[in-house]
Amino acid sequence: MDDILRVEDLHVEIKTHHGLVKAVRGVDFYLKKGETLAIVGESGCGKSISVKATMRLLPSNGRISGGSVKLEGRELTQLTEREMLKIRGSDIAMIFQDPMTSLNPTMTVGKQIVEMLKAHRKDMSKEQMKARALELIELVGISNPEMRYKQYPHELSGGMRQRIVIAIALACDPKVLIADEPTTALDVTIQAQILDLMKELQSKIDTSIIIITHNLGVVANIAQRVCVMYGGTVVETGSVEDIFYRPQHPYTKGLLAAVPKLHEKTDKLHTILGTPPDLMNPPKGCPFAARCAHTMKVCQEYRPVFTEFEAGHTSACWLHDARCQPEGENQ
Amino acid sequence: MNQEKNMDYQNIPRELFTKVQVDQGERERIGRPSLTAWQDGWIRLKQNKAAVVSLFVIIAIVALAILGPVFSPYNFAQTDYSATYQGPSLAHLFGTDMYGRDQFTRIWYGTRISLLIGFVAACLDLFVGVTYGAVSALLGGKVDAIMQRIIEILVGIPHLIIVILLMMVLPAGVGTIIVALAITGWVNMARLVRARILQLKNQEFVMAAEVLGTSQKNIILRHLIPNTVGIIVINAMFTIPSAIFTEAFLSFIGIGLSEPQASLGVLINNGYSVLQSYPYLLICPAIVIILIMVCFSILGDGLRDALDPRMSK
Amino acid sequence: MLKYIGKRLVYLVLTLLIIITVTFFLMKKLPGTPFDTERFSMLAPEQQEIMLEKYGLNDPVPVQYIKYLGNLIRGDLGTSFLYTGRPVADVIFSRLGPSMLIGIQAVLLGLAVGLTLGIIAAWKHNSGIDYFTMVIAVLGVSVPNFVVAALLQYYVGLQWGILPVAFWTNWACSVLPSIALSFSATAMFARFIRTEMLDVLEQDYITTARAKGLSQFKVLMVHAVRNSIIPVVTILGPVVVNLLTGSLAVESIYSVPGIGSLFVDCIKNNDYSTIMGITVFYSAFYIFVIMVVDILYSVIDPRIRIQGSKEG
């Protein structure tokens, strides 16, 4: 099996003082060695929580309530916290959304990189660690590493900070790198630089990447496969080509239609009507039923099952069912 | 997908695969009912059991302070030299003091005075502080700058010392304490109100209202005031116990109220002088003042968490 | 930075001047002087005149004010009435030691107990120790310090006889006053660091640290505690105010020969010059502490350091 990471039927619940939010309700995805998987969806669809759950990094009020997460066949949900510590950072590393807040403001960036090495590379000497940190700073494209090493995060620009965050994540050559909206908080030009850096580094150090984003441009730029999430579930998975050229799920189609296109003359921006479902009381049937243009009775009653189109391209929608009336199929 | 689900789905009747019309309104439905900030705050406050209990204890204490002396067969200043230093009993629930005065009556009478001082001082603080803060923030510019300099100097002054000095100069009495507390106490309120209004003025929704052509008066009435009331209420909740404490403190060191007037501070001071022989004379008023302070403090915290979640951080 | 300190110094002097002025004119308005006492009225009119002359009370008020200011600058706070003839500055200075001792002990105790409780409470949020800390925090700020002092004196000192309750003979005498005084400081520190820690624990960089595979303990000590302790400096000001006012009652109760009890004695005996002296001393001390705290804070926190240098 060349799957480095396999997540099956993952459920996550978050306790809030309004009630229990079922943030992730049966999510499946896998990551092959060396590939980049993009997880796409709008805010609050559970994409960020899903990947945090794979690292068991949920906030204290959240818990994994079911499913499995396997790293190279090893079940992570059953590990003790102590065993999990060895995996975090060294096997799976993470890059966060906002570089302004994801670095400790009162610690020099050099120390923050070395800290990662200290946690996992007990064999390295102090000098080796510093040398490695400097090497990493250079690797992520920051000049003058000796000076940067001693600086505090607030002395660096946003783009540079995100490079440092990447340097920290790569310090121990992780097998899987999870990037949670790594470019959302950055300027457009910096976004492109960071994405290029990630692509370049991936080929250099042979890591597999999961990138979470709501930006389809980012997906097209960096990913080989895409996983579309909606309302705490995966609605469609496939290669970038499958998703962009042969989308099957009405939600994916809606997402693609909502991207403004340069060559089309139009005055109107396409939108998907309505708001995402309330995950405190998730709908019984398809989560998208309330906003879908093709809703059937069955959609409101039953969760749709996956239908496979091409190899590795699946979509969960009742429209794909054989029993579906012809007029439902046509758009 | 697991087996169970697949079984299920094979049995779905064909009729269900027909299109339904989804109501447009239904699509835009927001999951949770929308609540005003106050409703939301009230719900959150109700969930905070400690705050609710505190609220009831405060109500009970206020009721006792008002009604206790009225329904008591004794007068707070009425002496009875045949019954001095009596321990708590049915005739005298909290015992009697060195002049045979009924402690139950005196404690609730004292609580009444202490609460009165707290409430009136808080009201004066509120009036002066809110006016000062609002004027400073709304006028802005030079006026604001000058008013801020004044505040910056005033916050540097240790309040209690000024209160002590005022107490020594002015004739002793409840009014003096209130005036002394109000003269020094409004600064904090003014700062909070000013900071809040300035913060609001720069927020998107106020700017949006301005852009949409809402009049200055409407912006103040609809946006600034409703969003400032929260911190004013919260701050007042903390002013009341602090005023009660200051009064008790002054009376304890001997420059607050004096005999035969009773306040919690006077009673504690009297009790302290005979602590070794008659501890109940100190403990009863001490428990009342502790209850008042604790409950106001918890209620204040609860209100802050409920009305202004950002401030609690 | 220098500009900032300079600005603060100007404010310090201005505030002090206002306090001195207010104090001076309030004192002049006081009914009843020490010269109203029986002892004084027994003196012959000529002697009375000499006394008034000696204390400069025959001059017009503005002249007295200018004279007082001039003397202040030279460190002369006037002469005490209560401790006849002794310079106020001397009287205050002789009382400084005990006050400093219990003040410093109270701050250290408050820091040690308060920070430990607060950190554990935030770490074990919603646990038994968290609730315990919250109770301590609420009680600490709610129970008047003179009640704490009186009850401690009664139970620990008199009933159980563990520690001396009054007099000032050896170090043991300072234990109870220090504990009584530290109570509110403990509560303030515990409460502050708990809220601060809970806030810091929600920050993204804590998740980053956890994602590095650091143990919970390391995340807590290296990242959370460090970032939450820095702002504790900001409440040192309010804590000092609390200690100053608390010391008035606590020192009187335990008869500590400190400045607090001196102040209360002078208030009871209308010793204006000493009252003024202590007021000036307390205010100067308080303003100075606040200033040092502000400067300290901007030095410790790298984020503020940069902002400060950009603005100032």
From TrEMBL, chain A:
Residues 5-256 form the ABC transporter domain. SUPFAM superfamilies: P-loop containing nucleoside triphosphate hydrolases. One of its GO terms (molecular function) is ATP binding. It is found in: Cell membrane. The keyword Nucleotide-binding applies. It is a peripheral membrane protein. InterPro entries: AAA+_ATPase, ABC_Ni/Peptide_Import, ABC_transporter-like_ATP-bd, ABC_transporter-like_CS, Oligopep_ABC_C, P-loop_NTPase. Keywords: ATP-binding, Cell membrane, Membrane, Nucleotide-binding, Transport. Belongs to the ABC transporter superfamily. This is ABC transporter ATP-binding protein. It comes from Pseudoflavonifractor hominis.
UniProtKB/TrEMBL annotation, chain B:
InterPro entries: BP-dependent_transpt_permease, MetI-like, MetI-like_sf, OppC_N. It is found in: Cell membrane. It comes from the Bacteria. CDD domains: TM_PBP2 (cd06261). It is a multi-pass membrane protein. This is ABC transporter permease. Keywords: Cell membrane, Membrane, Peptide transport, Protein transport, Transmembrane, Transmembrane helix, Transport. It comes from Pseudoflavonifractor gallinarum.
TrEMBL record, chain C:
Its main location: membrane. InterPro entries: BPD_transp_1_N, MetI-like, MetI-like_sf. It holds the Pfam family BPD_transp_1. Residues 96-297 form the ABC transmembrane type-1 domain. Keywords: Cell membrane, Membrane, Transmembrane, Transmembrane helix, Transport. The chain crosses the membrane at residues 9-27, 100-123, 135-156, 168-190, 229-254, 274-300. It is a multi-pass membrane protein. SUPFAM superfamilies: MetI-like. It is found in: Cell membrane. Belongs to the binding-protein-dependent transport system permease family. This is ABC transporter permease.
